[in-house]
Amino acid sequence: MSTYGARHAPSAFSTPASIALFRRLTWEGTVPLEIRVDAKELPANSNRGLECYFIQAPRVSYLPLVVPEVRAFLMDVVFDENGGRVVKEEEWWFERDDGGLVKWHWPIGLIYDTYTTSLSPSAATSSSGPTPLKLVLHLASPPTDKLLLAPSAEACKQAFMGQLKEADFIRWGNTKRMTGLRKQEQDGIWEGIREHDFDTYWRIASKITPTPSPNAQGGRSPSPAPVPPSSASMVHTRPPSAEPGASTDANRDAATAVRSVPARIYLPDGPVLQDLVPPALADGAPHTLGRFLHTHLPLLFPIANPRHSSDPDLAYALIQGVPCPLDAEMAWLGACMAGADGWVSVCVGIGRPGA
Amino acid sequence: MSPPASLSRSQFEIACKASLLEHVRNDRDELAQRHLQGWTWVEHAFASGLGYLSRTVQLSHRQDTGCDDSGCVDEFDGQIVLEEYDDAVLSDPRASDTLIARQYVVHSATYQVPVFYFTIHNSKGAPLCLNDILRTSLFRPHTLPPSKITPFALSPEYSSFPLLSQGDHPTLGTPSWYIHPCETPKVIGEILTELPQRTGTEDPIQWMRVWFAVLGGVVDLRA
Fold first, then answer.
1. What is the interface pTM, i.e. ipTM, of the complex?
2. Which structural domains are found in chain A, ordered by start?
């Protein structure tokens, strides 16, 4: 994975086709969930032994959007008529089977990744392939000191739109792009999530999301490209366009033109860290993931640009389930690896990532 | 048009600590006195740079609810549902119940301004729903615009984005309510530019005073 892109050749990652590819890959990502109803809470006369439901859920989706499917299964197979009448969906809440908290307003992919990084290094590496995240579905008494009240698809939409709007503000210093969307466009973007429809979502999301500039030197490659600092600083000065159709508008929307990249760091059992993440550093060099993590977690990431295999490997970064090379550029991550809510969620795990 | 104003995390921290000290020393500023009573500066258990102001106050249910029942409707899944009350309003035990409000002033890493977060619980420890929150003494009567209310947020009728919404406390990660900060940079910017030059727009303490004064117009900040 270290041989992508020669120094001056246009990076494969910077072509419109590859942007679309990475956005598609991010969008199509799914995670396995095993949802088991808490046996102690099953209504009387339930069909015991079948109270477990498996689903391959889209990373960009949310648990309240999965609930109707789970409910239909439980009604069909597990609950009897009386049981079906007594359960109240608005009381339902999820918990990891190890007791970990599951926030219903987080994207499912983020819930899965924070679960992965919470495992001890040995547990994370012992598995081969993705293991289902085991969730316990409780049918009553959500812990109101830990979870936001009244989960529903509508509440989820409001939380999601709030995240999109924050991401908009971080990128451009105002929320004009988001607030400028018409009502049916705002509804459409959520419809894209609900239906897991890439085209519906991106038809509108492309109006607010930056595109990596196809012309920037140094590439948007997340590979360890051997770019010396002097050359890397050229990224800042945009070369004249060689492509017809690369307009001023395209430059304005370029990933490197944003004020800051919406990014948060999730630590196992720690607070969520957030700061301004400019796409380029003061000297014009691209802001990399390694630099970002080194700035905030110097003990876990003692070197901003590790280049040698002998460099310490104390922790790793997981983005959309992918262990991410530390020289990935934040601007590129913001344009291609952000969640549907606009945020690059960097989940930090201790040790080496699992196989 | 005045430029939007922002306050960095370090300015926020300096201002919060200085405002507290100043309050202890200087009793003449009555408004600041009321706003700053009882706040303490709290750091995260092990991560640095995530400090915030915190205090606990008692609230009551407002006698004058400030809105007749027809104005307080739940919009839930597109249905307008009129509030259901217990038949005997006068003997409603909620009216005399003591409410505990935890209040926080945190720094928004997104908007680079202070944000007011809070939770309100009844004496049994149960959190209040939004409709009940709006009937507490926390909000000054008649200050909120005509709004759509869902269990998750309150949004002005003219906007599709909330003024007041649920959200995780940025440092504690616990469920809270917060007053949305996206208009704060503009409002504070306008006021700061109107102030006498000597105070300057760069003075973080002045910034926090103005912010508390603006917040105090909507929220009753008396401890």
1. 0.84
2. 27-150 (3.10.20.620)
